[in-house]
């Protein structure tokens, strides 16, 4: 399991990326982490937090961007098909 800390802002979140199931986000104010099922990505290996605070997760067959909107996380999926990037 990959563990990442967001050190840019206070209080900080902790991100746990599981290889096959998804992402858990632990916020300091929450008793229970938020779980986001990303099993469709198949074998997640990479997690990046960009300058806007969006999370980018790379899996075997897709790339997903997670964007926090209020207390919800929206998902944009990008996948390769015949060497061409396809976005929804």
Task: Tell me about this structure.
The chain is mostly beta strands and 88 residues long. Helices cover 0% and strands 52% of the residues. It has one domain (2-86): Thrombin, subunit H, CATH 2.40.10. The chain has no helices and 9 strands. The relative contact order is 0.16.
Distance between the amino and carboxyl termini? 28 Å
What can be said about the biggest beta sheet?
5 strands, antiparallel
The CATH architecture category equals Beta Barrel
Report the helical percentage: under 10%
> Could you list the spans in which at least 5 consecutive residues all have pLDDT below 50?
none
Average pLDDT reading: 82
Shape call: globular
Cα gyration radius (Å): 13 Å
The total of beta strands comes to: 9
User: How are strands sequenced across the largest beta sheet?
Assistant: 5-6-7-8-9
Number of helices: 0
Question: What is the N-to-C succession of helices and strands?
Answer: EEEEEEEEE
Keywords:
88 residues; mainly beta; Thrombin, subunit H; 5-stranded antiparallel beta sheet; 4-stranded antiparallel beta sheet; globular
Quick summary of this structure?
The chain is built from no helices and nine strands. It has strands spanning 2-5, 14-17, 22-26, 34-37, 46-49, 55-58, 62-69, 72-81, 84-86.
């Amino acid at each position: 399991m990959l563990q990442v800390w967001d050190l840019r802002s206070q209080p900080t979140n902790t991100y746990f990326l599981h290889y096959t199931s998804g992402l858990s986000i632990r916020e300091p104010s929450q008793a229970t982490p938020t779980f986001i099922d990303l099993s469709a990505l198949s074998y997640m290996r990479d997690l990046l937090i960009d300058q806007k605070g969006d999370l980018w997760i790379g899996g075997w067959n897709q790339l997903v961007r997670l964007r926090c909107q209020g207390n919800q996380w929206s998902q944009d999926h990008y996948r390769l098909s015949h060497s061409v990037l396809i976005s929804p």
